[in-house]
Amino acid sequence: MRTKIIAGNWKMYKTPAESLAFLDAYLPAVAGHTADELLLFPSDTSLSAVLKKIEGTNVHAGAQTMHWAKEGAYTGQTSATMLKAIGATHVLLGHSEQRAYQNETYESVHLKIKAAFEVGLKPMVCVGELLDERQAGVTKDTLLSQLGAAFTGLSAENLGDLSIAYEPVWAIGTGLTASPEQANEAHGIIRNELRVMFGDAVADSMRILYGGSVKPNNSATLLALPEVDGLLIGGASLDPKSLATIVASRL
Ligand code: PEP
């Protein structure tokens, strides 16, 4: 059995004070929930405060992106070493908003995965098709090409620390959710490709999460799907009650 991950992506929301206020409500609400891994991706300016506050709790946190270089003349960027130094355990890579607005590519995601592994950060890599790609019937080709660019050449040895979030881009922040059949099918395609690339042991151990307009009223159905190893939640993770309700919907 794979431990599920329930992760919140706060995008560009919440000051440090707002992040701490969230945790004042969220941490007691999920205390004792050990069935799943609970994760938050705050903005870089809140990450340090969040990491301090969650010390010794069942909640972990990481950054929403990073650079692949150890250090250098990359104004505005943060390295894996810097994230590790403040106690981050995870990093989100290849989110569709990074791909759409910050020129993130799966070639850069590949370099970032390697940099994350070098310092022991656990990457969560987002993949997913655009609406045009789904309508054109090329969802599978899109997923295979994203996985190929991100993962080809990685050594199987670290991959247990990597998770994948299947996030159909047409479902992110739109209120549209993939149907259980669509989610199961996409997750199956991804797991099968992992099997081809890395063998059964890696494919069977890697967590594949679903993301895209997950709310308290649809989380239980999605979490019950056999291929869904957790959820990556944007909008509904901003409110502690709503995220705690999603966590509880797993019980
Ligand atoms: C996301 O940011 O990864 C996401 C899935 O957002 P939302 O839940 O708001 O669709």
Structure overview:
With 251 residues, the chain is an alpha/beta fold. The chain has a single domain (5-248), classed as Alpha-Beta Barrel (TIM Barrel). The chain has helices spanning 16-30, 44-54, 80-85, 96-101, 106-119, 131-135, 139-151, 180-198, 200-205, 219-223, 240-248; strands at 5-9, 37-41, 59-63, 90-93, 122-127, 163-166, 207-211, 230-233. An eight-stranded parallel beta barrel has the order 1-2-3-4-5-6-7-8, surrounded by five helices. Strand 3, helix 3 and strand 4 (90-93) form a beta-alpha-beta unit. The radius of gyration is 17 Å and the shape is globular. The mean pLDDT is 96. The structure holds phosphoenolpyruvate. Phosphoenolpyruvate binds at residues 9, 11, 167, 172-173, 211-214, 232-236.
Can you give me a brief rundown of this structure?
This protein is 43% helix and 15% strand. The chain is an alpha/beta fold and 251 residues long.
The assigned structural class equals alpha/beta
Q: What number is the mean pLDDT? A: 96
> Taking strands numbered 1, 2, ... along the chain, how are they ordered across the largest sheet?
1-2-3-4-5-6-7-8
The CATH superfamily bears the name Aldolase class I
Residues in helices, as a percent range: 40-55%
Query: How many individual domains?
Result: 1
* Ligand catalogue: phosphoenolpyruvate
Biggest sheet architecture:
8 strands, parallel, barrel
Question: Which range does the strand content fall in?
Answer: 15-25%
Query: Which fold name is given in CATH as the topology?
Result: TIM Barrel
DSSP, total strands? 8
Distance between the termini: 15 Å
CATH arch. level architecture = Alpha-Beta Barrel
Radius of gyration: 17 Å
Report the uncertain regions: none
